[in-house]
Here is the input.
Amino acid sequence: MAIERTYPVRRFAGSTPEDEAIVAVEVKLPKLAASMDDGVISKWLKAVGDSVKRGEPLFEVESDKVTTEVESPADGIVRRIVVPEGEKIDVGTVLAVIAGVDEAVPETNGGGSHATGAAISGSVAVAAPPAVETASPRAKIFVTPRARKVADELGIDLNQVKGTGPGGRILERDVLAVAQTITPIPTTGPAPVPPPAPTPVAAPTIAATPLPLTGMRRVIAERMVHSQQTVAEVTLTQEADVGEVMKLREQVSAEWQKLHGFKVSPTEVIVKAVARALREHPRLNSSLTDTGIQIHTEVNIGVAVALDEGLIVPVIRSADQKSLLEIAKEVRDLSERARKNQLSRDEVTGGTFTVSNMGMLGVEAFTPIINWPECAILGVGRIAERAVARDGQVVVRPTMWLSLTFDHRIVDGAPAAVFLSRVRQLIESPYLLFV
Here is the structure.
């Protein structure tokens, strides 16, 4: 947490020694990971006027698909909250000011995309953000940069918008709320001649308010576009007979249910098979860097988990060194905590290969997008009984489609196909995983 002690100690009547030690501090958005450049304040855990202790949770920030609770850097009173919930801001931006109850908090420029607002003396209140001049002579209003941009695009007079943010600050949602009822301010000059009335046609139904591209959705969008624009992706597919996997599941699940309270799933067998194959074919366990191809020494497999707001990929580290039981326990634990938004940043970073199973959603086969900077990703389709040829006879067997998308800059099609064939072989003969 970045802290700047910008104000001197100030004693006030009736203060205790503890109060006198309080120095006003600016709370800034910390850099929680090397790749973090910005974040979204998802929730304030304290309001203006609340007392807070050093180390006590102060707010939640969402970045890299993970929501992290950030602690207060000091004891005192929350005298000012600058950035409202839902606002995307850069690392180092001033978010709030903590000070003593009678400590003068003069206006200051704390850096980042927001200033800290007007001074507060005496009673505690939400500080107003910096004034933004508009074309109207009445205008000294408080508005976020995003809200002002949307208002300009829609032709909305900000003087007609009532802000719902701290200190009456106008947020994007306030502009969108009035956009449906307020006619944009007309420009000066002669009135335009209306065109001939077109023939009425049925208009498509469009949502009144667009969904914001923020938080997890924004991270997914940025990474997927980067992967598509950067990586030379090729997808290979093979059909795998999972009859033996289903037998193994039936035989092992009864014992696991009794001892551990859950059954083995095909996903865990696939993760184990992929981990073994990656150890044998390390080129698929690599990344392309500025200095060349980096083959990772650890096999860290990400398992994609679908959430209501997007996709998150918790990582099973050193998967090649873990037993099927250990992998099963970890997959369940990570998946459950992912759905409860309880994963740490370390648990969703550092992957070297990803497995995405959409079979439970009824998907036959698909072409997954590489989770950059990894070299490859395996897509898993649904298990279904299909007619296949065996020893000159047509028989019905449970099968599923495996789709391997790989970076052709790192590995060619032939070695990628050999890797995929090895994964299929281990799935079709799962008892080899215990050798």
About this structure: The CA atoms of residues 170 and 230 lie 38 Å apart. The mean pLDDT is 79. The longest helix spans residues 243-260.
